[in-house]
Amino acid sequence: xxxxxxxxxxxxQAGGSLRLSCAASGQSFSAYDMGWFRQAxxxxxxxxxxxxxxxxxxxxxxxxxGRFTISRDNAKNTVYLRMNSLKPEDTAVYxxxxxxxxxxxxxxxYDYWGQxxxxxxxx
Length: 123
Hints:
The chain has about 120 residues and is an all-beta fold. It has strands at about 1-5, 10-15, 20-25, 30-40, 45-50, 60, 70-75, 80-85, 90-100, 110-115, 115-120. The protein starts with a strand and ends with a strand.
């Protein structure tokens, strides 16, 4: 069992930056691959970024490549999402998620979820 708590959301102007954090507690953090997902009003939740247990493999959705950076600090049981050059279309509730690590880094079927943090980008 893993408990996840996101923080760092807020309101920012287009072109600005935010860093989201997700603190994990419970079982060994380094046994889990971590992901960030988002859900905009009226839309389905979508994959944003994922990182494997040791940071050696990373994936991004095409719309955030070059602007967002996912990272993790296993000593602090925390995963981060640095978001630069934010656009109004990035407005959403951002969720942190975890799944037991395996040989492939997945973009779906995560087992544990945080409560979400709101990111609003004004134009």
